[in-house]
Amino acid sequence: MKPIDLRSDTVTLPSPAMREAMSRAPLGDDVYGEDPTVNRLQELCADLLGKEAALFVASGTMANQVALGVLTRPGDEVICDQGAHPVNFEGGAMPALWGIQPRTLKGERGLLDPVEVEAAIRPENEHFPRSRVLEIENTHNRGGGSVYPLERVRALAEVARRRGLDMYLDGARLMNAVVASGVPARDYAEGATLASLCFSKGLGAPVGSILAGDRDRIRDARRLRKRLGGAMRQSGVLAAAAIFALENNVARLAEDHDNARALAAALSAIPGVSIPHPVETNLLFACFPGRSAVGLVARFRALGVLANPEGFQPDLVRFVTHLDVSRDDVLEAARRVAGAVAP
Question: Which candidate, 272, 259, 282, 275, places its Cα nearest to that of 332?
Fold first, then answer.
């Protein structure tokens, strides 16, 4: 029985063509700024995101933490959604690394409201932490792959600008938002002081993220990257995979979105199963009322379907489509899930 892995879009494997691009990449020492493939990737991404400069880092978590470290001082506060990745999935890095704290709001599927954000900004008073950064996530993981409308992003950026905050765009799945909405990446990133993009999720590269912003802040980001482990020396072999992904794997994200909607339709046809959120991109949550998501995921695995409990809600399971699963795969996965939940 063929396993169908729907745990995450991080499980993808490099294609033969991507591996070939990696093997042919010209290399140098990135600590000295001499890796031509890394430099090319950074230039491509700075242009893609409409920023002056960019920095290649090991992961989305590193991009997030370097960005927050650049934009804050110890004792500062970051306003974000309660489901934000830096709050929930980065090992407590915000207080551990930078001495900062989150102020979490309950967004609509992770999407923050500008009025609520402005209300959450602390008054200037020695008793309070300083509200320093507004962090947004597009698409939003725990929002079920929700896409920020451009008008909302611009309104949030205006609140941040007017109130003296920096805005950080965690764009881990930004290209999914671009494909789903038709909005260019640079438009989403325009109002952000710093913006990131991950290559190892839907884009199918094995590792790496980019952080983009003005030259001064990216120079600061290089210092913090060093503090967290430094450049990866001849990392052009990895940057080449990211370049290949940007050149070949963006438009095809629409297939993943279509497959996610097909999977949602098939799962919702199973008696008792519901899809609580609209499926906009490649993430979907399925609700199995009265059932333990942890127990169900174990049953699914026994039938060759890999998925993850969502975590916030005990009966919610997350499924993620990606370039290594086909339409036939997701429909077969739904059939197996139906068998697993049958009385």
Answer: 259
Q: Are residues 190 and 273 in the same domain?
A: no
Residue ranges in the chain assigned as alpha helix (H): 16-23, 36-48, 60-71, 85-88, 93, 114-120, 150-162, 174-181, 185-189, 215-227, 236-248, 253-268, 293-302, 327-341
Per-residue pLDDT band at 1 (split at 50, 70, 90): confident
Q: Give me the residues paired with residue 198 across strands.
A: 209
| Domain CATH code at residue 27 | 3.40.640.10
Q: Return the HEC string of 9-77.
A: HHHCCCCHHHHHHHHCCCCCCHHHCCCHHHHHHHHHHHHHCCCCEEEEECCHHHHHHHHHHHHCCCCEE
pTM beyond 0.70, yes or no:
yes
Backbone angles phi, psi at 190, to 5 degrees: -55, -45
* 213 plus 192 within the same structural domain: yes
pLDDT in tens, 130-175: 999 999 999 999 999 999 999 999 999 999 999 999 999 999 999 9
Q: Do residues 240 and 266 both lie within one domain?
A: no
Q: Cβ neighbours of residue 256 under 8 Å, at least 6 residues apart?
A: 9, 176, 202, 281, 282, 321, 322, 323
CA 267, chain centre distance (Å): 25
**Structurally, how many domains does the chain consist of?**
2
Q: At residue 343, does pLDDT exceed 90? A: no
pLDDT surpassing 90 at residue 206: yes
Contacts of 232 (CB under 8 A, 6+ apart): 30, 58, 238
Indicate if 205 and 56 belong to the same structural domain: yes
Range of the domain at 300: 252-341
Cα torsion 103, 184, 154, 216: sign: positive
pLDDT of residue 312: 80
Q: What pLDDT, in 10s, does the model give residues 224-280?
A: 999 999 899 999 999 999 999 999 999 999 999 999 999 999 999 999 999 999 999
